[in-house]
Structure formats: structure tokens, C-alpha cells
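Input C-alpha cells:
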């Protein structure tokens, strides 16, 4: 069984603003002497794990990342008729298991909010709710022993298993991420442009005033992005309590989401949803490596799609020639009509998404 799964994706986006910086403009990075567009891994992971595709694929094994566990407990208990003071004290104690509560300023409503986001599994949420219901029935606050059993050392939430979690209040319940996701960058140089736009008032006849009702500017850019993902399959199975079938479902959900789910930034204005136009998947025990070096020299001229694939495969083959095979097995998915022949040596099968997901399963 292969230890590592590596994925290299090329996805083209038309004019868009997928992931904004502090000024509301598309994020960028400087690489190989040229400015590139960038989509952060945090943005990508958020959109993948909260997509309907991902949730449906993992069938309930999805975690919840929130600061509001205490508020949820308080509302559940008071809605069921608990004394507000008992509910408040219980909410503080229960939320405090997951992290330090934010200090409430004078005159501010107490929301029992944890200072940092915590990522909890479905069984942990179920345990919280069950304890809250018990406390309502028995009209009391939780005991120390009950609080000790709220956290799961290895929750069965696949997004926690893939992307990890850190609990400052209970570090022994931290989960090391089994999946590493790079920031996506364009394979070519790119500049952010400004869209100067106006909006017209429908009820303005224009007889006296022909001016716009609104004027604004919005940054945008277009590009072909390279994305690298590395999955430690052994660690993922360990994180999921040895459940191999669940690990395979997690990998399939992640890969299909990465291929088909676009960041939602400014989608209503740009309609920039896209699928990957090329995927190179690799399996093996070899030390993982990104192929971002393929694009240190930006792709130039026309035919970006085919040229980017050629550079990526040539770099993979160069690493193979220098250090030995970078993977035991490879698989190519291409939706680039102009791409006809791989630059990789050996037998590298091609196929569609369904065949790719079969390739990625644990049976080698």
C-alpha cells in the first residue's frame, strides 16, 4: 500500500477575484522574478470541506470549526427550560474544555465564545448535546468527570483527519494533518487589473439626471493555476482510528472537490467556476516533492495549457532522472483537447475522474 499520494493540478480561471487580500484585490505572490496570482490553501480547504460534494461523499463524517460551542449549549439548555444561570455556568464549563473563553467587556452580551476557532468531530458535537440534555433533565451543572469525556482523541471527522487541529487548552487531543495543500499560483506572470463599474437607478427616467446611481472599482485577474496536494495515507488511516474504507472515502472526496470545486470569491460578479484541465496523480513511498519548480520560468506566449503540462511533466521526469522515480505509479486525467502525448517515461495510464478515483484507492 502506497504511503504517499501526490496530486498536481492545472486549473484555468477567467477574469475573477477568487481570494481577496486586505484591500479586496486578488492575492498575489512573487516567484521566479515575476508577479503571480495566488489562492491561499486556507481558502481552498474551506471551500472544499464545506461543499455539498464533500459533505455528501463523506456522509456525516465532517467536522465543525467554530468559536460558538458555548452559545450553542446555552441556547439548547435555555430553550429546553433550564435555569439561565445553570445554563450559563454549564456553557462556560463545557466550552472551556475546548479553549479559553473570550473575555466579555463591560456592557457586552455574554456569548460564551471561545477565543480561537476549534475543529470538532461529529461524535464530539453529539456528546456535547447529550450532556446538555442530561443537565436540563437533572437541573444541574456538569461534573469534572463528565467534562473529561467530551473530547475524542481521534474524531472520525475526515476534515479533521486531513487538515489537523490544534487545541491549546488540551494539546494531547491535537491531530496532526495528514494532507498538505500548497497555495495555488499561476504558471505565468499576471497583473491585477481594475474594473471601473457603474450601476443605474431603474426608477431614474434620466430627464433631469443622467448620472450613475453608484460608481465603484473592483480588482480582477485571469490565470492558469498550479496546485500541489500531498496526502500521507498512513497517517490519515491512523487519524481515522484505522478505518481504511473511511480513509479512501476521504481521499476521494478531497480529490474530487479539488478538481471540481472553485473558490466562491466574487462568483456572483465573475461566474468563474472551473474544473481542473489537467491532473497528474502519483502514488508511492518516495519522499514527496512539489513540481512548482516547473514554473520558476513563467509560461510565455500562446498555448498556456499545453505548455504548462509539458513543463510540469518535463520537470517530473528531470527529478526522476536525477534522484530516481518520484512515484511507483502515475495516472493522468486530461481535459485539455490539445494535449496528445506525455513527456513522462514508462507506462502512465490516462482516464476520467472515475478511473482516477479508482486508481487512488488503497489496493495497489
Amino acid at each position: 500500500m502506497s504511503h504517499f499520494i501526490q496530486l498536481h493540478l492545472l486549473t484555468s480561471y477567467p477574469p475573477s477575484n477568487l481570494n481577496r487580500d486586505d484591500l479586496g484585490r486578488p492575492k498575489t505572490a512573487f516567484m521566479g522574478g515575476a508577479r503571480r496570482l495566488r489562492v491561499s490553501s486556507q481558502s481552498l480547504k474551506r471551500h472544499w470541506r464545506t461543499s455539498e460534494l464533500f459533505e455528501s461523499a463523506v456522509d456525516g463524517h465532517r467536522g465543525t470549526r467554530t468559536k460558538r460551542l458555548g452559545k450553542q449549549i446555552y441556547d439548547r439548555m435555555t430553550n429546553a427550560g433550564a435555569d439561565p444561570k445553570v445554563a450559563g455556568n454549564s456553557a462556560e464549563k463545557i466550552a472551556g474544555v475546548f479553549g479559553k473563553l473570550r473575555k466579555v467587556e463591560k456592557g457586552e452580551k455574554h456569548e460564551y465564545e471561545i477565543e480561537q476557532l476549534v475543529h470538532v468531530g461529529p461524535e464530539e458535537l453529539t456528546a456535547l448535546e447529550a450532556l446538555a440534555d442530561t443537565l436540563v433533565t437533572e437541573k444541574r451543572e456538569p461534573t469534572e468527570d463528565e467534562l473529561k469525556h467530551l473530547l475524542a482523541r481521534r474524531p472520525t471527522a475526515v476534515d479533521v483527519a486531513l487538515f489537523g487541529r490544534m487545541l491549546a487548552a488540551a494539546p494531547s487531543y491535537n491531530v496532526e494533518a495528514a494532507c498538505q495543500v500548497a497555495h495555488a499560483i499561476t504558471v505565468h506572470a499576471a497583473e491585477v487589473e481594475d474594473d471601473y463599474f457603474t450601476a443605474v437607478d431603474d426608477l431614474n427616467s434620466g430627464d433631469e439626471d443622467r448620472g450613475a446611481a453608484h460608481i465603484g472599482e473592483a480588482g480582477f485577474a485571469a490565470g492558469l493555476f498550479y496546485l500541489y496536494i500531498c496526502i500521507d495515507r498512513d497517517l490519515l488511516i491512523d487519524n481515522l482510528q484505522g478505518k481504511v474504507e473511511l480513509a479512501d472515502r476521504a481521499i476521494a472526496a478531497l480529490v474530487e472537490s479539488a478538481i471540481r470545486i472553485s473558490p466562491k470569491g466574487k462568483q456572483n460578479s465573475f461566474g468563474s467556476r472551473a474544473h481542473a484541465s489537467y491532473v497528474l496523480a502519483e502514488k508511492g513511498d518516495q519522499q514527496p516533492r512539489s513540481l512548482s519548480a516547473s514554473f520558476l520560468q513563467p509560461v510565455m506566449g500562446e498555448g498556456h495549457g499545453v505548455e504548462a503540462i509539458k513543463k510540469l511533466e518535463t520537470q517530473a521526469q528531470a527529478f526522476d532522472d536525477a534522484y530516481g522515480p518520484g512515484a511507483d505509479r502515475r495516472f493522468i486525467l486530461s481535459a485539455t483537447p490539445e494535449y496528445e502525448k506525455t513527456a513522462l517515461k514508462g507506462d502512465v495510464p490516462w482516464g476520467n475522474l472515475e478511473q482516477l478515483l479508482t486508481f487512488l484507492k488503497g489496493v495497489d
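The radius of gyration is 25 Å. The mean pLDDT is 95.
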